[in-house]
Amino acid sequence: MAVVLVAAATASALTACGADDEPVRLNGTFQRELPPDQARGKQLATEGVRLLRSADSVRLTAAITQGSATAGTARRIEVSLRVDRHSNCTGTFDGGQGQRGELLVVDGGPTHIRFTEASLDGLLAQAEAEEPAAASVIRKRVALVRGKYLKMPKDGAAFSNGMCDLGSLHQAIDEMGDEDFDGTVRAERPTYRYGRHVIPIVDVERGDKNVMYVAAEGKHRITAYEAEEGGERRVLKLSDYDEPFEVEAPPASEVVDPSEFGGPAGADLFEV
């Protein structure tokens, strides 16, 4: 990927005079200058990632769509979280019927999830319709977690702590330009996206299948990121930079450990 040269330093270096008034050329590799839209894209993308890396907290909403609606295999997962740099987060998730509720993580510890009443009712109804023989077992499990938090191990939750770690959140966006964005992105005209006035930063090779949006006014913070690959589409929206929030671990009396379920199904029934 081409590296942008700093023009001010280059011009003076090439014409500087030595003791014999002969031009002096500095050693080094000179590469082509980026087109204006790519240079602008690099500048904005770099600033956006820098501001995300330096933020102490942020609100994010993420939607992941997989499969095909036409083929009847479509699946959509949504989360809405407040995240900070100390691996704290709190928010909600929606993975479809039987997969809705709230989650929280404190200091990078276990993920605690609590399903909505309607979600648990849906799980039970589905079990009674599809697996009548197992319905009594599932009914007991539903009763066990109703109104309580399910404690998932750090490596066992579908919503891993990586999503609840602001320090690693930028890594997915970095992949857009291998961390330097040289020649990989271009800036387009300002527009409106998700209700915000933004500048689209588009992947040069993949076009609208990989787009970052930064605020058009003020600090060029990243407001959204869209990526599509392998039949999966991800939309990430960011807001409320540096706004503090509080999260506390639930009391032990409100926590259920999946190991209490036993049997081959284990906690699988309750994973989100």
Descriptive notes:
With 272 residues, the protein is of the alpha+beta class. It is 23% helix and 30% strand. It has a single domain, classed as outer membrane lipoprotein receptor (LolB), chain A. Strands 1, 2, 3, 4, 5, 6, 7, 8, 9, 10, 11, 12 and 13 form a 13-stranded mixed β-sheet that branches. The N terminus is likely disordered. It comes from Streptomyces flavofungini. This is Lipoprotein.
Supply the number of helical segments. Answer: 5
* Low-pLDDT residue spans: 1-27, 263-267
Amount of beta strand: 25-35%
Taken from the alpha-carbon principal axes, the silhouette is: elongated
CATH topology: outer membrane lipoprotein receptor (LolB), chain A
Helix % is 10-25%
Organism: Streptomyces flavofungini
Region (Disordered): 249-272
Protein name: Lipoprotein
What is shown here, in short?
The protein is built from five helices and 13 strands.
Main features:
272 residues; disordered N terminus; outer membrane lipoprotein receptor (LolB), chain A; Lipoprotein; alpha+beta
